[in-house]
Predict the 3D structure of the following.
Amino acid sequence: PRDVGIKAIEIYFPAQYVEQTELEQFDGVSAGKYTIGLGQCRMGFCNDREDINSLCLTVAHRLMDRYDIKPEDIGRLEVGTETIIDKSKSIKSVLMQLFEPYDCTDVEGADTTNACYGGTAALLNAVSWIESSAWDGRLALVVAGDNAVYSPGSARPTGGAGAVAMLIGPDAPLIIDRGVRASCMKHVYDFYKPNLKSEYPTVDGKLSVYCYLNALDTCYQTYRKKVKNKYNCGVSLNSFDAFLFHSPYCKLVQKSFARLAFIDFLNTSKKEVSEKYPELAQFHDIKVEDTYFNKDIEKVFLNLSKPEFLQKTQPSLMIANQVGNMYTPSVYTGLASLLINKPIKELAGTKVGVFSYGSGLCSTMYSLTITKECNEKSDLMKIVSSLSYIKKELDARQKISPEDYTKVLEWREQNCHTVPFSPQSSIKNMFPGSYYLVQVDEKYRRTYNRV
Ligand code: ACO
């Protein structure tokens, strides 16, 4: 099959948020720490009506409705998540409720977990299935979702919640480039969830930022090598029209873009550096390992790369800025934001870099080629226009005070794994088509309804 890639994309986020300026005050930190320092404006969160099953049911059902996909059209269903409510039963099996009533049970796939990387792992599995001898001509559906919550403290403002569903198949308008994927996988305790009684991770914030940037460097250098081997051409930021990053918080994404500009600089010959950037020559011989927390280098390359960042990456940060880190869906909310915020004529025929990172750690850099076809009837136009609900839903959300947000999280803490459980929150403000938790019975079985 030719041009395997993303044929449809749907994003879902909860209908309530907390304002980061109010959270700064509530937490007693200096004004600007979360909004300027981390680059976050609002943070979406789930009350007790939503869990990982409902998030995934909602986004999968909405995609199938919006694109008129029939259950029999799907031959593989993959779920990526790090929100674990059952050590055995997959969320994929919960999603089979959307297929079973139509006698469709011949659907491959199960869940994949590694922090924020699970969505990308699921996507790559789906692509591999379509490119394999097992493919039967049907489409694959990839779902990724998470409820990202942190214990009180410096990580709390970097939470978020939501889900993405993507339809994967041949002749796609967003084509995943073949033979040039680059990964960096290592064993490290930067962010992990060893306490199965809690929704909160154990985080070493500084280490997690170092691991993210180090994985980014490594993936980029490997991607460059693979392109060189395959096509005998060089790669720099100039090779990309847009670059998407997993977004723990938007400021780290801007630093990541600057990091790639710095790597480009390191890949420039000494001669060229002395001609083009004589004032930066001092940074050329520095050992990469010593650069991660070097504020001078960070500042210089943030400034140098800013115009390009504003053009190539800023448009992809809309949902990340408004909802926060959704974990597995994060980099795909970047794709949706890019498609919404750039005119279709500027998207058609372009190259998009993607960096997906999950602590622990798994990371991959790959690229997408956007089809040139962008007329009214094109698949690209269909995807772009189908995403027009996002801005409306972001604005239609209900603002919740930090006090009430904190109460919601405390209530979730108290009731995590408590049975039987009946949610208390109203369903009145949920978006149309959202699934909500009705109850968890004494045998831990969960039931859902749809708004
Ligand atoms: N105005 C403007 N900027 C401010 C202000 C202010 N009033 N106050 C602080 N800042 C800046 C700081 O200078 C700092 O900027 P810098 O990063 O450029 O140095 C930034 O705001 C953050 O402040 P810190 O003191 O560094 O923040 P802290 O250490 O309290 O927490 C952290 C940040 C570690 C990222 C924390 O939020 C965290 O642990 N998050 C979860 C882990 C995470 O997201 N890791 C990323 C990769 S892994 C993943 O995806 C989960």
